[in-house]
UniProtKB/TrEMBL annotation:
The chain crosses the membrane at residues 47-71, 150-172, 288-307. Its main location: membrane. It is a multi-pass membrane protein. This is Cobalamin biosynthesis protein CobD. The gene is cbiB. It comes from Uliginosibacterium sediminicola. Belongs to the CobD/CbiB family. Converts cobyric acid to cobinamide by the addition of aminopropanol on the F carboxylic group. InterPro entries: Cobalamin_biosynth_CobD/CbiB. It comes from the Bacteria. Pfam families: CobD_Cbib (PF03186). Pathway: Cofactor biosynthesis; adenosylcobalamin biosynthesis. It is found in: Cell membrane. PANTHER family: COBALAMIN BIOSYNTHESIS PROTEIN CBIB.
Amino acid sequence: MMLALALVLGVLLDAALGEPRRWHPLVGFGMYAKWLESRSNRAQPAALARLVGVASWLLAVLPWLVLALLLKAWLAQAAWLLDALLLYFALGARSLGEHARAVAAPLLAGDLAAARAALSRIVSRDTRRLDAAQVAGATVESVLENGNDAIFATLFWFALLGGPGALLFRLANTLDAMWGYRTPRLLYFGWAAARVDDLLNLLPARLTALSYALGGECRQALRCWREQAPAWDSPNAGPVMASGAGALGLALGGPAIYHGALEERPPLGCGASPQAADIARALRLVRVALWLWCGLICVLCLSGSLLRV
């Protein structure tokens, strides 16, 4: 029951407060990760660069994970409060909505330049030449994919391992976002960060895809997941985005420019091209899935407590 209480408190803190405006722990971790990469990622043979990447990943994550576990053991009966705080810092539900609405508002007002600028803060693709439908589509894709990374995979590891589990996933996901690119500098050094994130996301991503299907056009979402996800480059983003696009009845995917290079991405979903109003629909789908996850985890916690009695 303490886990359920920590879950509710962590989710409510995120909804009420959002990300800390100053002294956010993840911002500090990101600065540490950037410094660590600059010091350890030198010109090296591929095999050695991968080993250095593994060691750097461990050096980045393990000290904080061990600290969280020690604090939880020390707090004893009050450990659920630490779980709640760690979940709050790891969750990004309110932040996801704020960033998406920052794109939707100018797009609805016809200010394409401002919408492009807001979109550039949440995606890594080149946004300078996108039209209104492409801006809306990129935002919906970001909402669907980051719904898994910032919310549901975090909740999955929280349900399994409490606050330290949420912390582990969020740090691993942050390192993937910083080190996991296939650029000449990061191709081998960031291999471990990308693979660990893929592994930690393997089951949560498919549960997220199922949640999206249940919250929208279910049959269509499952069909898009089955037929389109295998063609997507990422083994975890494919199911999430294909199912989400199908649930919303939108046609997503297609070509996009990343780091100056054009990528021909497979299609996702089916139906109409996305419009500004579809951003709110995507956020609503994520919100429905969030309450579904919270309710299910609380029921499982209650069932476990009753069985122990």
